[in-house]
Amino acid sequence: MGRPPCCDKVGVKKGPWTPEEDIILVSYIQENGPGNWRAVPINTGLMRCSKSCRLRWTNYLRPGIRRGNFTTHEEGIIVHLQSLLGNRWAAIASYLPQRTDNDIKNYWNTHLKKKLKKQQAMGAIFAPPPPPSSSAETAANLPAAVHLDNHHHRYHHDAIAASSSTVDHGCYSNPEVTQHTTITMRRSPFADVAADCSSSSYASSMDNISRLLGGFM
């Protein structure tokens, strides 16, 4: 079962309210207070249904109603609450006591909803491009990484080749090592003999051993 109708619709006046009707309604509410709207038409003699009396008072006649353009702050509140509550205009109007739910609903449908859609469309057009993914960054940096890896590989290969060449010849071609070796040999009595890189074969004969010992004499 649904809610019973506010009136039987017989002899009920529709259309705009007259100033005389407004005065009767305001006088009655000032004396009895708002509420019990079903009794208002009966007690005042107005040929209006109870719903019409309630809406006339709430949206037009009650004190403190603010008319005129909505401020930016009010627009922000309406947009935020509409995203949370939907089209529950009476609940939204409770957060804006000086505005009626009817004014808020009309302002939303005629102006604010269109403005919001336009802003969202402009934001989608001028939105910054998404950041590149990790795979894209890896692909972009791949040539540099390959070049760097080839450089290290070539440097390592040259170092190994130089080391192998030094070992094969039994001496080092590094200038610092050569200088250090020369200084050491100058201070040693074996300098004349040790300059030869093949020292093992040199010390294998008796004559060479005698020459080494002669340096100490």
> How many helices does DSSP assign?
11
**How would you spell out the order of helices and strands?**
HHHHHHHHHHH
User: What is the distance, rounded to the nearest whole angstrom, between the alpha carbons of the first and last residues?
Assistant: 133 Å
Q: Calculate the mean pLDDT score and round it.
A: 72
Q: Structural class per helix/strand content?
A: mainly alpha
CATH class of one domain: Mainly Alpha
Write the CATH fold name of one domain. Answer: Arc Repressor Mutant, subunit A
The coarse overall form would be elongated
Strand-residue fraction? under 5%
For the sheet with most strands, the description reads:
none
Percent in helix: 55-70%
Rg to the nearest angstrom?
A: 51 Å
CATH superfamily of one domain: Homeodomain-like
Pfam families: Myb_DNA-binding
Keywords: DNA-binding, Nucleus, Repeat, Transcription, Transcription regulation
Subcellular location: Nucleus
Protein name: Myb-related protein 306
